[in-house]
Amino acid sequence: MLFTFVASYWLDSGMENCFIALGVLSFVIMGLSLPMIMFGKRSRRWAKDRYLRFVDIRDGFSK
């Protein structure tokens, strides 16, 4: 929903600027896939305890 309001400002500045901004945004998001492939397992292990604490608080589950 928020993207709809932002996209209207981009379109008002011209189609070329809109497509350039969306292309750069897409490239950045796709560029993050390589670090997540290489370091994803390590980051999930690092965040495991915090996530389990969060789920326990949110849902009342225990380990």
Detailed description of the structure:
- Keywords: Membrane, Transmembrane, Transmembrane helix.
- The chain crosses the membrane at residues 20-40.
- By secondary structure, the chain is mostly helical.
- The chain has 2 domains: 1-31, no CATH class; 39-63, no CATH class.
- The chain is 87% helix and 0% strand.
- Helix 1 (2-12) packs across helix 2 (15-31).
- It starts with a helix and ends with a helix.
Keywords:
mainly alpha, membrane, transmembrane, transmembrane helix, 3 helices, 63 residues
Strands, helices and their partners?
Layout: H1 2-12, H2 15-31, H3 33-59
Helix pairs in contact: 1-2
What is the percent of helical residues? over 70%
Task: Please give the alpha-carbon distance between the first and last residues.
Answer: 37 Å
Order of helices and strands: HHH
Tell me the radius of gyration. 19 Å
- Overall form: elongated
Mean pLDDT: 86
**What share of the residues does DSSP label as strand, in percent?**
under 5%
Largest β sheet strand count, sense and barrel closure: none
What count of structural domains? 2
Number of strands: 0
**What structural class should be given to the helix and strand makeup?**
mainly alpha
List low-confidence stretches: none
Assembly type: single chain
Total count of helical runs of at least 4 residues: 3
